[in-house]
TrEMBL record:
The keyword Glycoprotein is assigned to this record: no
GO molecular function: GTP binding; magnesium ion binding; uracil phosphoribosyltransferase activity
A Pfam family of this chain: UPRTase
GO biological process terms held by the UniProt record: UMP salvage; uracil salvage
Organism: Salinibacillus xinjiangensis
UniProt similarity note: Belongs to the UPRTase family.
GO cellular component, one term: cytoplasm
Record keywords, A-Z: Allosteric enzyme, Glycosyltransferase, GTP-binding, Magnesium, Nucleotide-binding, Transferase
Isomerase found in the keyword field: no
Protein name in UniProt: Uracil phosphoribosyltransferase
Cofactor(s) required for function per UniProt: Mg(2+)
EC number: 2.4.2.9
């Protein structure tokens, strides 16, 4: 079963408070989401494998370490996922970035993919799907399925805030996917918003309504 990690680092929790606050304007909101993306990237990469190498320092030889294992791929779900992506790239600049765009079918109300553009070697990469809000889990599940259909083998899901309903939905449909969060909130309301949440992440990032 997929594991759920909630990052309780004080800096992440501090910044998340201002992200939640409705008085925080678009510019500051975007900056804070970007910064939390960087801090979460620091935490999510904690378990990456290392290998030993020798380097010559100016004074002697050193046994040191470099990253080993699979290369990373970032997969923001359009459009709110973009808000965290640059922050993550700040720490992992060599990661490739793929995009998944979804729309809501007006009849079934289910998310449907309309745009998928991925690095050519996704089956060899460890992929991080990025979506700030894990509400019902519908979009994350469709995005993860879109990646698996195209050969992805290792996928993690990174969100700012999740509702328990969304976490359960992803755990059930994709038990191989671990979920990384800054906060696990109380519930969804009748309109599908996370409570207490932060409102609509896309609108707050881009100043739309
Ligand atoms: N998407 C958002 O942007 N906010 C929510 O609360 C739920 C889904």
């Amino acid at each position: 079963m997929g594991k759920v990690y909630v990052f309780d680092h004080p800096l992440i929790q501090h910044k998340l408070t201002f992200i939640r606050d409705k008085r925080t304007g678009t510019k500051e909101f975007r900056e804070l989401v970007d910064e939390v993306g960087t801090l979460m990237a620091f935490e999510i990469t904690r378990d990456l494998p290392l290998q030993e190498v020798n380097v010559q320092t100016p004074v002697s030889e050193a046994n040191s370490k470099v990253l080993a294992g699979k290369k990373l791929g970032l997969i923001p779900i359009l459009r709110a996922g973009l808000g965290m992506t640059d922050g993550i790239l700040g720490l992992i600049p060599t990661a490739k970035v793929g995009h998944v765009g979804l729309y809501r079918d007006p009849e079934t109300l289910q998310p449907v993919e309309y745009y998928v553009k991925l690095p050519s070697d996704i089956e060899e990469r460890e992929l991080i799907v990025i979506d700030p809000m894990l509400a019902t889990g519908g979009s994350a599940n469709v995005a993860i399925e879109a990646l698996k259909k195209r050969g992805a083998k290792q996928i993690r899901l990174m969100c700012l805030i999740a509702a328990p309903e969304g976490v359960e939905a992803v755990k059930e449909e994709h038990p191989d996917v671990d979920i990384y969060l800054a906060a696990l909130d109380e519930k969804l309301n009748e309109k599908g918003y996370i409570i207490p949440g932060l409102g609509d992440a896309g609108d707050r990032l881009y100043g739309t309504k």
